[in-house]
Amino acid sequence: MSLLDDVSIVVTPNGYKSGVLYSVIPSSGAGDLEVVRGTAATRVDEAGLVNYAEIIGSEEVTNGDFASDLTGWTGYGITSATGGVATIGASANSGIFQTILTQGVTYTATVNVTSYDGVGTAQFINNNGTNIYTITETGIQTFTFIHSIADATLLLRGISNALFSVSSVSVKEVTRDNVPRIDYSGGGCPHILAEPQRTNTLTYSEDFSQSFWNQTTATVTSTTNTNPSGTSGTYSVERVTGSQLGASFSVTSGNDYTASWYVRNISGTGAIIIKDTNNSTNNFTATSEWQRFSVTANASSGTGRCYMQVPTINDEVEVWGAQFEEGSYATSYIPTSGSTVTRNQDQFSRDGISSLINSTEGVLFVEMAALANDGVFRIITLSDGGTTNRVSLIYNTSSNSIRVMVVSTSTVFDTSNSVTSTLDFHKIAIKWKLNDFAVWIDGVEVATDTSGATPVGLDRIVFDVGNGSLDFFGKVKQLQVYKTALSDTQLAALTS
User: Fold this and answer.
1) What pTM value is reported for the model?
2) pLDDT of residue 187
3) What's the Cα-to-Cα distance from 37 to each of 16, 90, 136, 295, 302, rounded to whole Å?
C-alpha cells in the first residue's frame, strides 16, 4: 500500500493560479494552501532569487497619454498639453495632479519623460510634500511606491524652475495578497518561502549612478551584462585610487541591521570588502558566478552604513541588487527604484477543511528549514482556530531545536529534539492517537508517549500557533496530513 493511499492533504509548491498554491490532491480544491497576507516585488531568475507573484490592477490615471490634452488632470503654474505631450514649467512651482490614490496601497508607476532641462527638480510627490520619485533623465522610468497619507492626490511637478515634458503617465495598483511565493534557490525542487516584513532602505538598489550612492574615487560604470534577475544591466566597480561604493543613513542604535550585495568577479583576485552598519570590515572572495554576500551587526550609533570595497588595485567586480534591512539576517531581495520598498509579512492558512483532518488520530508531516536561529518561536499548526486544540511543529527558541506539541485543552505531548542545524531541510512527522504519540525526524523515531487524549475540532492548517501569533518564517518543500496514525514502517519511509 502506498502512503498516498492514506494521505488526505498534500501541499507542494508546484504551481499557483488566482492566489492559490495547488496541492497534488484532492482535485476539488480542498487542501490547497491559501495565502492570507502577501508579498512585494517581482523577480524570477536563474541564480537563486525568489519568484514573487503579483497582480497588477487596472489603470488609475485618466487620460494618461494626454490624447485629450489635460482632460482629467488639474494643472497649475505653467502647464499645458498638446499633441499627446504635457509640458510642465518653468516657474517656481508648476505641475499637474489627479486624485486617484488610496492610503496604504502599493502602486507601480511608469512615466515617459520626453525632455528635461536638468534645472531644478522634477518629481512625483504626495500632497503633503513627501517625495515619491525624482526624475533625473529622459526616457521611460518605472518605480513602485506605497501611498502613505490619507489625501488621495498624486502630483507630477517641477520646482525651482524645472522644465520638462512627459508623453504618458501610468499608475496601477499592485495586489500581492493571497499569492504564494516560491523560492527556486539552491537548485532541485522549489519551496514555499515565508518571511517577516522587511524594508529595503536603499532607494536605488540597482542604479549605482544615482547621487544616493557615494562613489569614493572608485570607477563605477554601467554595463549591459546580464544580472541575477536574468535581465540586462549591472555596474562594474574597479579599484583605481579608491574603491568604495556605498551610502549612509539614519538607523536606530541598538537594533540589528543586515547589508547584502550581489557580486561577481570580472578580473583580478575577486577580493571584496563589505562594511556592516558600524563600518566594520568583512572580507569575502567573489567568483565568476553571481553570489549574494551579507553582513549583520548591532548598530552602535544612529548612523548606518552600507559599503562595498574592492581592496586590490586594478581588480574589477560587478555589483547588483544591494539591500539594507533591519533584522538579524538577510531576507530575499527587494528591488527599489527611487524610494524604499517594504515587503509584507507572509502568512499562510487554509480553514474549513475538517473533513480532511481526523482529530482522533493522524499524522502531520512537513519537510522544512528555518531562515535563522534567531531565538523566536516559528510554528506550523493544525488547529481549531485557537490554541486549546492543536498539533504543532515548532522551531524552538533555543538554537537548532525542533519542538512538537499536541494540545487537547491542556498539553498532552510536548517534546524538543536537537538537530545539527535547523537551517537545513528536515523531514518531521508527528503521530497522534489516544495514548499513542510519536515524533520522527529524518527517518528516526526521536520521542514517544503512551498517555494522553487527542484534540477535537481540528479544521485548519495555519503557519502560526493557531491564533495568528508566533508566525512561521522558513521554507517548506512539502506538507502532508494523514487521517490515520501511520505505522512505524510507514513513518520511517515518510521521513527518510
Assistant:
1) 0.71
2) 65
3) 15, 45, 35, 28, 32
Query: What's the CATH code, domain 58-175?
Result: 2.60.120.260
- The set of cell numbers assigned to 91 is 516657474
- E strands along 1-105, which residues? 7-17, 20-23, 33-37, 50-52, 55-59, 74-76, 79-82, 85-88, 93-99
**pLDDT 10s digits, 41-76:** 333 333 334 444 456 778 999 999 999 999 999 998
| CA 303 – CA 251 distance, rounded (Å) | 6
HSE-CB of 151 using CA atoms within 13 angstroms: 11
Answer yes or no: are the C-beta atoms of 452 and 437 closer than 8 Å: yes
Look at the block and give the residue holding cell 517625495: 131
Least confident span in 32-46, 60-74, 133-147, 436-450: 32-46
Chain segment 482-493, per-residue pLDDT in tens? 999 999 999 999
The full DSSP string for 46-75 is SSS-EEE--EEEEE--SSTT-TTTTTT-EE
3-state secondary structure at position 147: coil
Q: Which three cell numbers stand for residue 351?
A: 480553514
- Rounded to whole angstroms, what are the CA distances from 242 to 219, 311, 314, 385? 8, 8, 10, 59
Burial 429-465 (b: 16+ CB within 10 A, else e): bbbbbeeebbbbbeeeebbebeebbbbeebbbbbbbb
Class (C level, CATH) for 198-340: mainly beta
Domain with CATH 2.60.120.200 in the chain: 3-41+346-495
Portions of the chain given CATH number 2.60.120.260: 58-175, 198-340
Distance between start and end Cα atoms, the chain: 17
The CATH architecture that domain 3-41+346-495 belongs to is Sandwich (2.60)
User: Would the pLDDT of 161 be above 80?
Assistant: yes
Distance CA 378, CA 474 (A): 8
